[in-house]
Design a protein that fits this description.
The protein is α/β, with parallel strands linked by helices and about 250 residues long. Helices cover about 30% and strands about 30% of the residues. It has eight helices and 14 strands. It has an eight-stranded mixed sheet with strand order 7-6-5-8-11-13-12-14, sandwiched between helices. Strands 1-2-3-4 form a four-stranded antiparallel sheet, with helices on one face. It has a two-stranded antiparallel ribbon with strand order 9-10. A hairpin with a 4-residue loop joins strand 12 and strand 13 (about 205-210). The longest helix has 15 residues, at about 220-230. It is globular, with a radius of gyration of 17 Å.
Length: about 250
């Protein structure tokens, strides 16, 4: 990212927080060569990273009124969902105050009564229980060393399920190393009935899981993907075509 202008350079006890800008895109980075978040300045609500696009697939299976995002980063998911879903209530939980501050300052986060931003440890927040159960819980918890291993724990997956409504869904962003991780797959199946996943082709393995089985046909899902993909401005049918049951 040496060709980008450095807009922000700070650090906390967990590492560096940098924001780069080339006039077209803005990037949040926690380490050299890392892109934690990316937005196009002209359309900040259109998801740029493939894995974030794939994480919106639960929108084919539920119409959320309440969403919680664990791991704010630059707020790309928050921005996209706020823009695409009228009246949705979104809570984002971010561990690092410095990251939240950078997101608010540089990444055009939506503001208002529909958005709640919290600084907290996501694992602890789930343990104590969200204020209200959600229709969609999205976990994108990464740090300077990569994926937070807390998401692989029985207690974490169990607490995810406890904070999701009976017909709600979970979207979990993992490294591709967990593509054939039997222990993780079985753990999720213990708490969710409908478990599907896809390889984004960019190093991420995205798992989506529902507490109730969805019986939509392939044609119905494709039609929904075309409609919702248009609302989001992303190729959602592409990610649907890669989605398979676990």
């Amino acid at each position: 990212m040496s060709h980008h202008n450095l807009l922000h350079d700070s650090a906390d006890e967990l590492g560096s927080i940098r924001v780069f800008d080339d006039g077209q895109y803005r990037v949040l980075s926690f380490a050299e060569g890392d892109e934690q978040s990316r937005i196009r300045l002209s359309t900040p609500h259109v998801l740029q990273h493939e894995y974030t696009q794939a994480m919106t697939l639960p929108l084919l299976f539920c119409q959320p009124k309440r969403i919680c995002i664990l791991g704010l980063g630059g707020g790309a998911l928050l921005n996209a969902l706020y823009y695409a879903i009228p009246n949705v209530q979104i809570t984002a939980v971010e561990l690092r105050q410095e990251v939240l501050d950078a997101a608010q300052m540089y990444f055009k986060l939506p503001q208002g009564k529909r958005v709640t931003l919290e600084v907290a440890n996501a694992t602890d927040r789930l343990e104590e229980g969200l204020t209200k159960k959600v229709d969609l819980l999205m976990t994108d918890i990464y740090n300077t060393e990569g994926m937070d291993r807390a998401v692989l724990q029985e207690s974490f997956i169990s607490n995810c399920a406890k904070n999701i409504k009976e017909d709600g869904w979970l979207a979990l962003n993992c490294w591709n190393d967990y593509k054939n991780h039997d222990e993780l797959n079985e753990l999720i199946k213990r708490h969710f009935v409908d478990v599907r996943a896809l390889d984004t082709g960019t190093g991420n393995w995205v798992i989506i899981a529902g507490k109730k089985k969805n019986h939509s046909t392939g044609k119905e899902l494709k039609n929904s993907a075309q409609k919702i993909g248009t609302q989001l401005g992303i190729p959602l049918t592409k990610w649907l075509s890669r989605l398979a049951s676990l």
